[in-house]
Amino acid sequence: MQGCPSGLFGNEPVTLSEGLQQLINEHTPLRNHLETLLSLCNEVEKAEDKQAPFAQLIQEVTDFDKSLRYHSRREEDYMFTVMEKYIGKSSGPLAVMEYEHEQAHGFIDAFLENIKNPDLNSYEQLKNATQIKNSYYTLVDHFAKEEAVLYPMAERMFTDEEKETLRQKVSEIQ
């Protein structure tokens, strides 16, 4: 298991329990997919004929959205709910994490809504690629915050029973 430093409840590294580690492990393929999306957005920006790279971007965003929603749901449905009883969610790190989930999903949702129009011109394709770039920047920063702060915080505050329940929940949703 990976050690994670956190300045919130001390600077010593934390070894994450199995359920938390599994959620962190999901960040790697999501980050890799984000890199693919960013590369495609850059291709859309540079291409004179944007149709081919934009069509590929549509497919990749559709696939990524499914993976991201699956991951987000697993965090929100149990981990965030348990953390809320310890730290609340009206302000602080949990509020920020939920806001960033909404923000990233909002960029992707706007893209997916806009592509329902099959006649997007080059400008509209560029504008929509920017939505995905915004999601990229939001999520890269978001994952780093979760790994450095939120997951170590959860490890420190969750009881052994809560950690085991998280492990089971993360395993059963697969």
TrEMBL record:
One Gene Ontology term, aspect cellular component: plasma membrane
Domain Hemerythrin-like: 20-154
Pfam family, one: Hemerythrin
Superkingdom of the source species: Bacteria
Protein name: Hemerythrin-like domain-containing protein
Organism (species): Bacillus benzoevorans
